[in-house]
Amino acid sequence: MAVEVLLPKIGLTMQDGTIDEWLVPAGTVVSEGDALLRLATDKVDVDVEAEAGGVFHPAVPAGTTVPAGALIGWLLAEGEQPPGPGGTPMPAGPGSGVTVTGGPSAAPAVNGGVAVRGDATRSGGGVAVRGDAEPSGGGDRILASPNARRVAARAGVDLGAVRGTGPGGRIVSEDVEDVLAATPAQATPAAQAVPVSPLVRKLAKERGIDLAGVRGTGAGGRIRRADLDTAGTEPAATPVRSADVIPLTGMRGTIARRMHASLQEMAQLTHGYDVRMDAVVSLRARLKQEWADSDLPVPSLNDFLLKAAALALREHPLLNAVVRDDGIHLYEDIHLGTAVAVPGGLLVPVIEDAATLPLPELARRSRELADAARAGRISPARLEGATFTVTSLGGYGVDFFTPVINPGNVAILGVGRLRDGVEWVDEQPRRTRVLTLSLTFDHRAVDGAPAAEYLRTVEGLLRRPLRLLL
């Protein structure tokens, strides 16, 4: 009996996701728990496992963005055909959410793959596959960038017919556009005067470029994406090819929207404050020796700062709050978000009740969350609920910066690099260890003086770090 493969809803806020890559070819026999696909959401990229065993058949191509709960494939018994008219791999009918039109042009699966002929549109899900979109079947896996897959799916290009020019023969979006440039344009009669691919036409519309005034350099005068970059300027001696476009979707798109909204909606101001770290550096060196034979994790400098930031919020609750229409709401709990750089963006895992945790336990949780975030296996639930955030660029050699507040908070603490400083004692210079804290706060909720007092409290805790161990 056919088992539907549905796009899982990961976390309460997920609306849709992008199938970044099918991890098994069509027609592969999989077992329960085998990884089927790499899913890109607005917060995290994760591998999705099969919930049952069977012969796998995808229903949509890689690179497609679909809503949570949408049908994306089937798990079948040996010899069983996917449900749908004529046993076609792309299911049809109101139960599947996919409508296939084009009549006799609809083709069956080829080598266990997915073939869509004519015009296939997922109703209500925003998925449209036009022309001829065929993910490769069998055991041959096509190496292509996610952007190339999206461009190919949008323009109806068979990636199996594209020669890759990227590293290791990987197909990039420029390769797909070269195929489009060499293919006769499928334009409406009103638009046939300008030979152009659907992708270039879309880019021209987004940039406000009139295609009638663009000279095409492709075959038969066809307009290519590179022609849009030189539109309205004198032709260069050597045509310059544009690099791959990084879509503002998934994690990158979420970061862009949230940070822009943060700066638009808040009155943000940043204080810079130098703190002495001599006592922390000395204590940490002692702990490395004393705990060498124990199971206790030695806290990093950042762990000391996390604990100090959390304890200081008890004395300065205005910084552990959110601004809403009816006023400033103070949070009862202190849940620290700790920013972690990952490929393609930034994740902020949350350490719950950070002020109540002994420092070794806080260090263990901080390490586990950071490792899970970098490995792409963190649960979206661990990325929600931060009441205050700490972010560090010290490892990159940055002293001072202006972090942007995460929406839902009123402040964020930036941590710079540990560096040498100088203290004068009896007119004699003495070497010290210092770093700069960068506190960005929402001036609607907190004034400059209370924000400075918070930083003084953090400094006091770091000067006497034994209290942070408890």
Record keyword descriptors for this entry:
Dihydrolipoamide Transferase; 470 residues; four-stranded antiparallel sheet; OB fold (Dihydrolipoamide Acetyltransferase, E2P); globular; Chloramphenicol Acetyltransferase; alpha+beta; seven-stranded mixed sheet
Short description:
24% of the residues lie in helices and 25% in strands.
What does this structure look like?
The protein is of the alpha+beta class and 470 residues long. It folds into three domains: 3-141, OB fold (Dihydrolipoamide Acetyltransferase, E2P) (Beta Barrel), CATH 2.40.50; 160-247, E3-binding domain (Dihydrolipoamide Transferase), CATH 4.10.320.10; 250-469, Chloramphenicol acetyltransferase-like domain (Chloramphenicol Acetyltransferase, 2-Layer Sandwich). It has nine helices and 22 strands. The protein has helices at residues 146-155, 173-181, 198-207, 225-229, 250-265, 278-290, 301-315, 359-375, 448-463; strands at 3-6, 16-22, 29-30, 35-40, 45-49, 54-58, 65-67, 71-76, 98-101, 116-122, 127-133, 268-276, 321-324, 327-330, 336-338, 340-342, 345-347, 350-351, 388-392, 411-415, 419-425, 428-442. The strands form six sheets. Strands 12, 15, 18, 19, 20, 21 and 22 form a seven-stranded mixed β-sheet that branches. Strands 1-8-6-3 form a four-stranded antiparallel β-sheet, with no helix packed on it. It has a four-stranded antiparallel β-sheet with strand order 5-4-2-7, with no helix packed on it. Strand 13 and strand 14 form a beta hairpin. It starts with a strand and ends in a 7-residue tail after the last helix. 36% of the residues are buried. Mean pLDDT is 79; it is low at 85-139 and 185-193.
